[in-house]
């Protein structure tokens, strides 16, 4: 009987210690740190993709046009226009995210691009796109955090 009586206390003690650790983690890894990490990580993915589409600053490569003509085949948009739009979005929007400028809008733009890629280009890549969407949805919901130009400029 004694072991049954001491078990709840031991469990509470272990739970209380775990909860204390969780509270510390919340303080150390607060929203501002998470937002900065999310902004930089998702920006890197899109920026690197954008760099593969251009030569120099924003000269679209012939290979990019060919990809949009043959593999990507977006409906309602000529491949030449889609290639330019993709390169521009993947170049400039990540810069805004790294700076934390218009974070919610920037994340929304990239979420839209992710949706287009998932639906029309690579539907079997949904695990990757879902992870991008999770990061982008966090930024849309919570904003750029204190380490952002949004915070400095008081942009929600």
Overview of the molecule:
The chain has 156 residues and is mostly helical. 78% of the residues lie in helices and 3% in strands. The protein is built from 7 helices and 2 strands. The radius of gyration is 22 Å and the shape is elongated. The relative contact order is 0.13.
What is the total tally of β strands?
2
Low-confidence stretches: none
In whole angstroms, the N-to-C terminal distance is: 58 Å
Helix content: over 70%
Q: Compute the average pLDDT.
A: 93
Rg: 22 Å
Share of residues in strands? under 5%
Largest sheet: 2 strands, antiparallel
Order of helices and strands: HHEEHHHHH
The number of distinct helices, counting runs of at least 4 residues, comes to 7
* Secondary structural class: mainly alpha
Shape: elongated
Strands of the largest sheet, in order across it?
1-2
Secondary structure layout:
Layout: H1 2-28, H2 31-51, E1 54-55, E2 59-60, H3 62-72, H4 79-99, H5 103-121, H6 126-142, H7 149-153
Antiparallel strand pairs: 1-2
Helix pairs in contact: 2-4, 2-6, 3-4, 4-5, 5-6
């Amino acid at each position: 009987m004694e072991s049954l009586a001491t078990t709840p206390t031991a469990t509470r003690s272990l739970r209380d210690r775990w909860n204390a650790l969780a509270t510390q983690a919340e303080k150390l890894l607060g929203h501002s740190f998470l937002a900065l990490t999310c902004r930089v990580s998702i920006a890197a993915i899109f920026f690197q993709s954008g760099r593969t589409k251009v030569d120099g600053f924003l000269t679209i490569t012939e290979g990019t046009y060919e990809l949009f003509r043959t593999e990507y085949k977006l409906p309602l948009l000529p491949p030449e226009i889609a290639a330019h739009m993709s390169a521009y979005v993947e170049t400039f929007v990540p810069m805004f995210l790294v700076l934390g400028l218009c974070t919610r809008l920037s994340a929304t733009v990239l979420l839209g691009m992710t949706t287009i890629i998932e639906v029309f280009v690579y539907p079997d890549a949904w695990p990757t796109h879902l992870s991008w969407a999770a990061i982008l949805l966090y930024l849309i919901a919570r904003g750029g955090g204190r380490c952002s130009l949004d915070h400095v400029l008081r942009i929600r």
